[in-house]
Amino acid sequence: MANRAPMLRIGQQDLKCRQGCGFYGNTQFDGLCSKCFRERNDKQRKKQRASEDHEALYTGASSAGGTMEHKSPQHSLSLGRAKPKKQPEKEQPHNETPTASSTMPRKKFTVPAVLQKTLKNKLAVPQQPRVPSATEKQFMLQLRQLRIPDDAKRKLKSEIQRLDHEIRKYMNNNSTKNVDELSDLVQNAYTRVADIVHNDQRFEIATNEDRDSAIDFFEKVVMTQNHNLLFSPYFTTDEESDIKVQKRIRQLSWITAKHLDCSIDEVNAEARDLVYNAISELVGIDSYYSPQEKLLCTVRCCRHIFELLKRSTGGPASADDFLPALIFVVLKANPVRLHSNLNFVNRFTNASRVMSGEGGYYFTNLCSAIAFIENLNGESLSIGAEEFDALMSGEQTYSTPWESALLACESLHLISENMKCMEQLQKRNSVIATGIKDFERELIEFQREVTEKVDTVMAKAPLTLLPIKTPPFLISQARAHLSQDGVEAVAGHYQTNLLSGGLGQHQLSAKSKEKELATHEDSHLEAAHTLALKDTSIGSVGRLSPLHQNLPQPDQLFASPIFNYTPFDAVSLLEESSENGDVLMLGSEFQGGLTNINYDFDLSDQSGENSVADESKLNLDEFDPLVQQRQQIASTVPNSAAELSLLDTTTDSLIDCDVPLAGALLPSPLKPEVANYRGFSNFDIPSISCNTGDFSSLNQDVNDPGVPAPSNK
Amino acid sequence: MATTPRSGGSGSGAAQRPNGTSQNKSCQFKLVLLGESAVGKSSLVLRFVKGQFHEYQESTIGAAFLTQTICIEDTVVKFEIWDTAGQERYHSLAPMYYRGAQAAIVVYDIQNQDSFQRAKTWVKELHKQASPNIVIALAGNKADLSNIRVVEFDEAKQYAEENGLLFMETSAKTGMNVNDIFLAIAKKLPKNDNNQGSVIKPNGNEPTQTTNNCCK
Which of A197, A404, A585, B154 could covalently link to A416 via disulfide, CB atoms 3.0 to 4.6 Å apart? Predict the structure, then answer.
């Protein structure tokens, strides 16, 4: 560009990129388009990396243009020098003020120049590398990219330079220094710049956003350039505070999320990752130069915390949740130079930044978190003062899952998690153990209760077999009858036994709760008795049941009300109805009465029912032929009784007594079921399911003499 | 109040945001929420900002810092709402938050006498330590549960009048009075012609001290 002849008018060609790529070029990019400019930049940077900055500065200052113009500070200088040549052709079409762009870079360049001068004169020289030329270059580019008029840029640059100068001057004079004065100085400069940006006519056409970015830029440049001077200045106590708070946080390492009442799950891996993110951002605050970047870092840190809280609480977190979580993160992060950073931002950033806006809000939260950490005591963690002291002094150890998680050693962390898992398992195990014990106790209790209940029931309803209330003459008559007919002794005995038993049962039921029914039943029974007596005389009863025609009348009659078979016999009923009205009448009455009795038995005493059911069944189905074969007068009653005797050995002893003991008789009604079952097993039917496929057992079965059930059948 | 154009729900306020060329005046105010925890501070703000109670948008990352713009009499008022932690243990940190705030809403729960007492402490503290022209509003939240109230309306009303506070009973759940209380604050706040940059001056001066042209 330097070798072009100045012209008043410029053609379309001159606006295009000098490389001829077809895109429009830009004066700020040396007449190149942005892409070509960057390419060339990179190339040249590589080439000139080796050359020393200082050297370059001086050579650059003496020799205009050419090779040096793209090194950031030098570049601007060379541009400045080259101004007369390029200015007319490049600047005019873009700007109202022809000198704007060229003046601006020169002013920009003066920043490092001033800096260097001061650094050379003063002891601050070794700090110089903290402001690398790359940053300078970046700022140059940024300044160029600001969408404000060029004279506004120039003004901004001069303000930067001015503040820069003021800071250095303050730092370099020998009077006692006060950081507040320095802060005021910077803040006043901000106010001044804000005033200029908003009210100066040079900024008139800029939008609000552009003005804001101009102010931002100003702050950023000044702060970055002077970071080394303003950050934790030697005349403040920032460093001591840093060390103090760091030590305190280390002492507070035992604090868990629970203490802070915050909903961070320390053990959850996902939550931990988010906490790590937040921590790394928090620690990262120290690595930025400008307050804005530090604030942005804080915002990012807080966003991670919100993300974390959102997952644990389900909705957007409020400050009630957020502040404890932030305190937790600060405690676990223990960032370096905490106070220095906070103070740097507080003193030297635009005060509006920390008073408003999202960054300001989160920064305020960070400040309050640190204030809380510095002032916390047992009360604020809801633990006792003594415990707090013990924990602080390290007398009382407190292992936190977080601590172990923080250790780089993942295996240790794993161990801690496993131990936690084991602990949980142990807890569950003990729960199971106690459950087992409880269950055992319950079982015993249940057993006891059942026994007790059975006992009470048995006590309440003892099966007392009282002497038969039937007129004694009837019994004697029956006995006489039996003996006369030459009945098998066994059958006869059973008959008696059952007669008495049946009566006992009846009395039992009569005693039981349903008194009305019982009395009703009693009346029926009495009716039955009388009927029986009547019938005896008539001698018609035998005909009632075709099966028992030979039955001795008294026996039949005694048995029938109790065991409920003959009168219920459908055939007999039919016969009844067909035969004579008298009997029918009596019979139907009788039947109703008997139904009641029977029902009552069912409820009050199951043992009674058992025997009844067995008997009726046996009577009707199986044992009929047997009865006939024996040619017995014996009704189903004696037959069933005979079966009972087969199954129940105890009955044998009872047969003989007229008045059997209640206790002795009690088991008998209960037994038929069991006995029945045993009766099957007596046949020794092999349990097929058990031994299928097992040859040895099969052999045993075969060898067993009792076993061959199939053959038996 | 009902006649005032307003942006009750979400978004419509943002549409009216000036883009620098707008003729509307614009002000930005920092509003601090104070009150015991679980009185519904954040619910109140979420209702105001997002127009919602339980259904949160995915984008709502946190309810601690929110902004909402409303239009009132040709002026665009942008509220920047700072929530504070209500737990007793963080009480002492509050001054950091209400430093430089132009407005404060002190929230209590009408079912909770303690929260009302705490609210009174906040008001006292604000009078003592906050900027003198701060607009304070007292909000008795959870008004939808007024059948089991503990703090009587008249009692709170009287207290508010004695201390020069705006007072409303609100319900974040039903939305009752939520927009109204913010509008009332916006009306009471002094609005100067400058745009937002000068409302909060960079050097920390209180802009509310310079002008006092209250709408009320």
Answer: A404
